[in-house]
Amino acid sequence: MVALDDAERRLGFGLPGELRELLLESDGIVGHTSVDTVWPVERIVEQNLLFRSNRSFAELYMPFDALLFFGDNGGGDRFAFVRTPQRPDVFVWEHETDSRRWVAGGLRDYLGRSLARGGDDWYQ
């Protein structure tokens, strides 16, 4: 609980309820092919702070302030909740095109889809 409170303080906002509940039970989830389906809380903080502060990212990509990254596919694409406007849906950010698109109706749906298919490109 202290780690989550510290993470929220460092990020400057609260984690979505579903994600917070999962992180209280397990510090992340590793998928079938050793992909970090849900990152440990420290990586969630590090990656989100990096994506918001890296100047080269700011030159290459649209702003990331509306997203909360929490996992990846092992190849550069990231999965995120939308913070603004706040909603439970999960989106994928595709690093090669800077596109952001819907992939799941919430964390439970995301886990079901990503873990059931077994491949890193389940969302394609």
What does this structure look like?
The protein has one domain: SMI1/KNR4-like (3-Layer(aba) Sandwich). The protein has 124 residues and is an alpha+beta fold. The strands form 2 sheets. Strands 3-4-5-6 form a 4-stranded antiparallel β-sheet. A two-stranded antiparallel ribbon has the order 1-2. Helix 1 packs parallel to helix 3 (41-53). It is 40% helix and 22% strand. The protein has 5 helices and 6 strands; from the N terminus they run ααββααββββα. It has helices spanning 2-11, 17-25, 41-53, 55-60, 107-117; strands spanning 29-30, 36-38, 67-72, 78-82, 90-94, 99-104.
Report a brief summary of the structure.
40% of the residues lie in helices and 22% in strands. The chain has helices at residues 2-11, 17-25, 41-53, 55-60, 107-117; strands at 29-30, 36-38, 67-72, 78-82, 90-94, 99-104.
Mean pLDDT over the residues: 93
Q: What is the share of helical residues?
A: 25-40%
Biggest sheet, open or closed, and with what strands and sense?
Answer: 4 strands, antiparallel
Shape: globular
CATH architecture: 3-Layer(aba) Sandwich
Number of strands: 6
CATH fold descriptor: SMI1/KNR4-like
Secondary-structure element pattern, one letter each: HHEEHHEEEEH
Q: What class, by secondary structure content?
A: alpha+beta
User: How far is it from the N-terminal to the C-terminal residue, by CA?
Assistant: 35 Å
The number of distinct structural domains comes to 1
Strand content: 15-25%
- CATH class annotation: Alpha Beta
How many H/I helical runs?
Answer: 5
Low-confidence stretches: none
CATH superfamily: SMI1/KNR4-like
